[in-house]
Write a structure and sequence with these properties.
By secondary structure, this protein is an alpha/beta fold. It is built from 17 helices and twelve strands. Strands 1, 2, 3, 6, 7, 8, 9, 10, 11 and 12 form a ten-stranded mixed β-sheet that branches. The protein has a two-stranded antiparallel sheet with strand order 4-5. Helix 2 (about 45-55) runs antiparallel to helix 14, helix 8 (about 195-205) packs across helix 10 and helix 11 (about 255-260) crosses helix 12. It starts with 5 loop residues before the first helix and ends with a helix. Residues about 1-30 have low confidence and may be disordered.
């Protein structure tokens, strides 16, 4: 990962001239309960952080509410705007949905965290997705990837090996079906799941040859329809036709896919790396791994979507400012980063030498080190409506009510339309 940008270093250095007591870095003195809201997929990580924070701040009671991704993205903005929001909460990096950093900062719901000590250590690519106009508005906690999480026992049971090419992937789907199972569980009844296979394929079909695709989109020199997105959506449907996925993806939920992998009814699932912990919780003895989903017959072009996955904001209207800032400071510290990521299946967003990479995450770490990781696509889209259009179009493709060309046209229209 690259070092912090010069502009970011200068800005934060200037802020650090302020005495720490003026920054609210002292221990929390608020007597009431600190309310934290987190994504249900990050339960193990947040539970570990709360326990560690409690040992340092025994007088602060922390109550955590866990919610599904769709619920958070739909309701968090309204809750914060009404003045009834949590003190600290999950916020998505970039600008991909209504609960993203840029969306919540625009409505005035996020406290500026630029003067916090953790902000000094933000690598440039990490800082970009938690900052607005060079000001930091969230604590990035983990670096995750989207790939095929699989049970090594289930893969061995069908006599398979990790595929390195597109042809090998399709062949493995057929092998799994011949053995009476399915290669990849797919839960497209859960809206946010619809995007993941697209992202995993686009990482190669687009970014494997056009590394600056996002910049070209922003300047109007590229489109969804005129790019490798077309190939990716076609391959997504081909995988369904070849029996790679669950029998009825549109009526299968995320929770069911996790249970299918844990129970051996599916070899794996295309998911964010943090889902490893949920599968492991249901199957404690399972040996799990993750691989980049190939979308090309040249393995050298294979890429994996990987970026800051979870981040946390502080409510600008919080009545427990000191406790909330102390919690944010802990999340941004090496101790907090390591507690969060040791409990989960992710890497620290702010690297430190004390973190040991789990065996299941070696592929993700290798992608990060080798420069073969590309950002989560929605983080660099101009507004949340593009992601919603993506959800809708994938579901329509699987329902047979649209075509790849029409789906891409809808994405281009959403991208070009100014959000109201």
């Amino acid at each position: 990962m690259s070092s912090p940008s010069r502009r970011t270093r200068a800005l934060v250095a200037a802020f650090l001239l302020v005495p720490l007591s003026a920054c609210g870095a002292v221990g929390p003195s608020d007597g009431d309960t600190l309310r934290v809201t987190a994504n249900v997929t990050d339960r193990a990580s947040m539970d570990a952080v709360v326990a560690a924070f409690g040992r340092l701040h025994p007088d602060t009671e922390v109550a955590v509410t866990y919610a599904e991704t769709d619920v958070l993205q739909k309701n968090l903005g309204r809750q914060l705007a009404s003045g009834d929001g949590p003190d600290v909460f999950t916020v998505w990096p970039g600008n991909g949905n209504p609960a993203s950093v840029q969306a919540l900062q625009a409505q005035g719901s996020l406290r500026d965290l630029s003067i916090r000590r953790f902000a000094v250590d933000l690598p440039e690519d990490v800082g970009t997705v938690v900052q607005v106009d060079y000001h930091t508005y969230a604590v990035p906690t983990n670096y995750s990837g989207v790939g095929a999480i699989y049970s090594k026992e289930s893969l061995a049971a069908i006599g398979g090996a990790v595929p390195e090419t597109w042809d090998e992937l399709i062949g493995l789907c057929r092998t799994a079906r011949d053995k009476g199972t399915v290669l990849l569980a797919l839960g497209n009844e859960t809206p946010w799941v619809t995007q993941l296979v697209s992202y995993a394929l686009v990482a190669t079909t687009v970014y494997g040859t056009v590394a600056d695709f996002d910049e070209r989109m922003q300047t109007g020199d590229a489109t969804f329809a005129g790019s490798g997105w077309r190939d990716a959506l076609r391959k997504y449907l081909e995988m369904d036709e070849e029996g790679c996925f669950s029998d009825d993806p549109l009526h299968t939920t995320y929770e069911e896919t996790v249970a299918d992998v844990a129970g051996g009814r599916a070899v794996g699932v295309v998911q964010v790396a943090s889902s490893l912990t949920e599968i492991q919780a249901l199957a404690p003895d399972a040996e799990l791994g993750i691989f980049a989903l190939p979308a090309d017959d040249d393995p050298s072009r294979t890429r994996m979507p990987a970026a800051v996955s979870a981040a946390y904001g502080v409510n600008a209207l919080s009545k427990h400012r000191k406790a909330a800032l102390a919690f944010a400071d802990f999340l941004g510290s090496p101790e907090g980063q390591n507690a969060y990521n040791r409990a989960g299946a992710t890497l620290p967003a702010i690297p430190n030498d004390a973190f040991a990479v789990k065996p299941a995450l070696t592929v993700l770490a290798e992608q990060q080190r080798s420069g073969k990781a590309v950002p989560f696509m929605d983080q660099l889209w101009p507004h949340p409506a593009v992601q919603q259009a993506h959800f809708d179009q994938v579901r329509a493709l699987f329902a047979g009510t649209t075509s790849v060309g029409a789906a891409l046209a809808a994405l281009d229209h959403a991208y070009a339309t100014e959000q109201q």
